[in-house]
Specification:
The protein is mainly alpha-helical. The protein is built from ten helices and six strands, in the order ααββββαααβαβαααα. It has one domain. The protein has a two-stranded antiparallel sheet. A two-stranded antiparallel sheet has the order 2-3. Strands 5-6 form a two-stranded parallel sheet.
């Protein structure tokens, strides 16, 4: 996969991380949820009509300082997906629903996480939240990822925007994820935690939008 460098200069962390980040998260997420409410309603209807099961997926994740919370996503897989396979999901995973293919491609399944941000469980920008079992196995260095709230997007989300493609056709998606994807995700996540700033957050949000619409 190769190393991936941060594409813009970093500011030193300061008062923004202590106070400003949460204020920005709350205001932007609340306004975003209101502005996107028609889209949320349409997507919810499509999920409901496409397959049986709940509209939202509410899986447990490790949040700030490891505190568990329930992440909100539009459901893109069959209701009993967790019993049928692992947490790694290649693009050809048979558990993905018809509507789920498109929701995942355009990241529309992530939109309900705006409510996680409003509630203070997540941030707009930060390392992606992991399942509890994964976090329990963190090294002391990897636990640095828990110092900030997990985010909807970060540098790793941009680099691995099409993560599912990397596991296409694999007999062992879990191995591919842990050998190819996870080490770089951790590296980029720790780099963000150590040097997050308002300017970096804005840059990540803008680059995420570009990646989605490319």
């Amino acid at each position: 996969m190769g190393s991936w460098t941060v594409p813009f200069a970093l500011d030193r962390p300061g008062i923004y991380r202590r106070f400003g980040k949460r204020c920005l998260d709350f205001v932007v997420a609340l306004l975003g949820a209101i502005a996107l409410s028609p889209v949320l309603a349409v997507v919810a209807l499509l999920v409901r009509l496409d397959s049986r099961g709940p509209v939202l997926y509410r899986g447990w994740r490790a949040g700030h300082m490891g505190r568990p919370f329930r992440i909100m996503k539009f459901r893109t897989m069959v209701p009993d997906a967790e019993q049928l396979g692992g947490s790694e999901t290649p693009d050809d995973d048979p558990r993905i629903t018809r509507v789920g293919v498109y929701l995942r491609r355009f990241k529309l399944d992530e939109l309900p996480q705006l409510f996680n941000v409003v509630l203070g469980e997540m941030s707009l920008v930060g390392p992606r939240p992991e399942v509890l079992a994964e976090v329990e196995a963190y090294t002391s260095r990897e636990r640095t990822l828990l110092v900030v709230r997990p985010g909807i997007t970060d540098w790793a989300s941009i680099k691995f925007h099409h993560e599912g493609r990397l596991m296409l056709g694999s007999d062992d998606p879990h191995r591919v994820y842990h050998e190819v994807i996870r080490p770089e995700k951790v590296r980029l996540g720790i780099a963000y935690v150590e040097q997050c700033s308002f300017r970096v957050d804005c840059g990540i949000i803008l680059r995420t939008l570009v990646a989605i619409f490319e």
